């Protein structure tokens, strides 16, 4: 089944690349008007209007192949048996890491016995911005 889905995926990618190439070499709607005034496309490989029919039909055929391959891949992905629960229920459980303690600022040092420096006061949120607002 895995090989079959790989083959379908390869066919889908080739069809997509082929469609991109065919769409890029097609002329726009305004290009036909230039040919009617002597644009010189009548001497092309497919004739005056043959390239438009050939390229549009080839693009339609590749689009059909692309959509069929897409539907086949979607069907094959949904036909797999569903697991009997959530993905999180099947996840391996590991022990939580031990919490690290962070020393408090301003606490006295236990080894030196020196008095601790006073903790710096933290300004309230937005105090800097409030000082910059001009008042009347």
Order of helices and strands: HHHH
Give the mean pLDDT.
74
- What coarse outline follows from CA principal-axis ratios? flat
The gyration radius over C-alpha positions equals 36 Å
Low-confidence stretches: none
Helices, by number, come to 4
Outline the biggest β-sheet.
none
Class derived from helix and strand content: mainly alpha
Beta-strand content bin: under 5%
The N- to C-terminal Cα distance equals 77 Å
Number of strands: 0
> What is the helical fraction, as a range of percent?
40-55%
Explained architecture:
- There is one protein chain.
- The protein is mainly alpha-helical and 136 residues long.
- The protein has a domain at 50-81.
- The chain has 4 helices and no strands.
- The chain has helices at 2-25, 31-36, 50-78, 127-131.
- It is flat.
- The chain starts with a helix and ends in a 5-residue tail after the last helix.
- The mean pLDDT is 74.
What keyword list fits this structure?
0% strand, mainly alpha, 4 helices, 136 residues, flat
In a few lines, what is going on in this structure?
The chain is an all-alpha fold. The chain has helices at 2-25, 31-36, 50-78, 127-131. It is 47% helix and 0% strand.
Q: What is the strand and helix layout of this fold?
A:
Layout lengths: L1 H24 L5 H6 L13 H29 L48 H5 L5
Helix pairs in contact: 1-3
């Amino acid at each position: 089944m895995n090989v079959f889905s790989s083959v379908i995926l390869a066919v889908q990618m080739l069809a997509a690349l082929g469609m991109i190439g065919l769409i890029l070499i097609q002329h726009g709607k305004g290009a036909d008007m230039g040919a009617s005034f002597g644009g010189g496309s009548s001497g092309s490989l497919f004739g005056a209007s043959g390239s438009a029919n050939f390229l549009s039909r080839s693009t339609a055929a590749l689009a059909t192949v692309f959509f069929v391959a897409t539907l086949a891949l979607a069907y094959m992905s949904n036909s797999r048996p569903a697991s009997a629960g959530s993905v999180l229920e099947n996840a391996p459980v590991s022990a939580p890491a031990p919490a690290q303690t962070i020393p408090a600022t301003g606490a006295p040092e236990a080894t030196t016995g020196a008095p601790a420096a006073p903790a710096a006061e933290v300004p309230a949120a937005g105090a800097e911005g409030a000082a910059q607002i001009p008042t009347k």
